[in-house]
Design brief:
By secondary structure, the protein is of the alpha/beta class. Helix content is 50%, strand content 11%. The chain is globular, with a radius of gyration of 18 Å. The protein contains 8 helices and 5 strands; from the N terminus they run ααβααβααβαββα. A 5-stranded parallel beta sheet has the order 2-1-3-4-5, with helices on both faces. The longest helix is centred in the C-terminal third of the chain and has 24 residues.
Length: 215
């Protein structure tokens, strides 16, 4: 699909501010198309990562689930449903968003799987139960070899989910498991994460503009 000109403004800002990562422009456009298509189809996004990347996965979920820089008022149809259900007074405080689940945020299921099955399955188990064809899994791993992220990506692809990955420059296990891959030009963990941050912020800006902005 052709992205709005206003959506591409965010892409142009990214390539100007982060010239050494301008090669990711096509990947950002493709990832935006996938997430917008997912949202318009009533599907959902799943995110996962470890350590700092776990925080990043939850950060992405937060930016997609509520307003980032644009207002996202509920639609007239949604307002009518809220009114009919007796929750009309809440409509002005609600915002539209992309249904997103951070697989890092449920300590009970993660520790249950780690204790009863295998710690490398904490995200794969959730992806298996929650994932449906047309959904998206976003996996972040600075090494690209995190077993629990790699396993989640494998399960996701098997179930017909689209996959988006964030990693570093070294050849890694997740390289061939992602429909869109942001393989940043760094090898140290904190430097890789520093590169991931502006990429996923730009991705969330582009998705928001595409879904909720006016061109």
């Amino acid at each position: 699909m052709a992205l709005k000109s206003s959506t591409l403004t965010h892409l142009n800002t990214f390539t100007t501010r982060y010239a050494r990562m301008s090669d990711f422009a096509p990947a950002l456009s493709r990832a935006t198309e996938l997430i917008c298509g997912c949202a318009r189809s009533g599907c959902k996004v799943l995110t996962c990562g470890n350590g700092g990347s776990a925080a990043d996965s939850e950060h992405i979920a937060a930016e997609l689930m509520k307003a980032f820089i644009l207002p996202r008022p509920v639609s007239s149809d949604e307002t009518q449903k809220l009114n009919a259900g007796g929750a009309g007074e809440l409509a002005p405080k609600l915002q539209r968003g992309v249904a997103t689940v951070a697989l890092t945020s449920n300590a009970a299921i993660m520790t249950a799987v780690a204790n009863d099955t295998d710690a490398q399955m904490i995200f794969a188990q959730q992806a298996f139960v929650l994932g449906r064809a047309g959904d998206i899994l976003i996996g972040l791993s600075t090494s690209g070899n995190s077993g629990n992220v790699v396993n989640a990506l494998k399960v996701a692809r098997s179930l017909g989910l689209h996959t988006i990955g964030f990693t570093g420059s070294k050849t890694a296990a997740m390289d061939n498991l992602c429909d869109v891959l942001f393989k940043v030009p760094e090898t140290e963990t904190y430097k890789i994460q520093e590169c991931h941050f502006p990429i996923y912020h730009t991705l969330c800006l582009m998705v928001e503009q595409e879904l909720y902005g006016i061109d």
